[in-house]
Design brief:
- This is Crp/Fnr family transcriptional regulator.
- One of its GO terms (molecular function) is DNA-binding transcription factor activity.
- Keywords: DNA-binding, Transcription, Transcription regulation.
- The chain is α+β, with helices and mostly antiparallel strands and 216 residues long.
- Helices cover 36% and strands 25% of the residues.
- The protein is built from 8 helices and 11 strands.
- The strands form 3 sheets. It has a 4-stranded antiparallel β-sheet with strand order 1-8-3-6.
- It is globular and about 60 Å long.
Length: 216
């Protein structure tokens, strides 16, 4: 992030295609022109750090392609995934904070938009954008509550079923991540996840077809 602020001084090269970007998100579609002028495109390689714990927020980020994860180290030294973002805004809670409380790392090659922080907060004075932002935060809050509820469940089977029922539709979900990464999101070891999936298949409780999981 060193020297990042100066990148907002000159126009982004090449110019951003806002017509295409507006198709990525209803929020980008109504982002005021004043904020668009202070938006830059960034590209990160896999395992590159976007920001670190203790850095001061300078921008609001939107993931256009790839994936960014917010990570925090546990006392045991492992990584705790706080947020996974693909095609969406990242670290929304940092908007009114003086420092980040976690690290943001690219899980794969990733392209992002960086909207200057002050320009983004000014955009919230525009009613159309503000209303969309409030709706977005409400959806994220529901997702966070579901995630918290899932982690409170005692068994791996309960967490798997809860995930499929809340994140999928009609008892079916298509995973957009590896099972190892999914295990981390569920708060399980990957061995425990694989073992439980095998047990559920054997009991005819679950059908696993590559990345598609269907409750029976």
């Amino acid at each position: 992030m060193a020297g990042f602020e100066k990148d907002f001084v000159t126009p982004s090269r090449p110019a951003l295609d806002w017509k295409s970007l507006s198709l990525e998100s209803p929020l980008l579609a109504v982002l005021p022109e004043s904020a668009r002028r202070l938006t830059r495109s960034l590209e990160l390689q896999r395992e590159s750090t976007l920001f670190s714990r203790g850095d001061g927020p300078q921008a609001m980020f939107f993931v256009v392609s790839g994936e960014i994860r917010l990570l925090r180290r546990s006392k045991a030294g492992g990584e705790v995934v706080l947020q996974r973002t693909r095609r969406g805004f990242l670290a929304e809670a940092s908007l009114d904070q003086s420092t980040y409380h976690c690290d943001a790392v690219a899980a794969e090659p990733t392209r992002l938009l960086a909207i200057r922080r002050r320009a983004f907060t000014d955009a919230l004075a525009v009613r159309g954008f503000r209303d969309r932002w409030i709706a977005h935060l409400a959806r994220e809050l529901r997702k966070a509550r579901a995630h918290s509820e899932r982690l409170s469940l005692k068994t791996a089977r309960e967490r798997i079923v809860h995930f499929i029922e809340t994140e999928g539709e009609g008892g079916m979900v298509d995973l957009n991540q590896s099972k190892k990464d999914w295990a981390s999101e569920l708060g399980l070891t990957h061995e425990a996840l694989y073992r439980t999936l095998a047990q559920m298949e054997k009991r005819d409780e679950l059908e696993v077809d590559q990345s598609r999981l269907t409750l029976r």
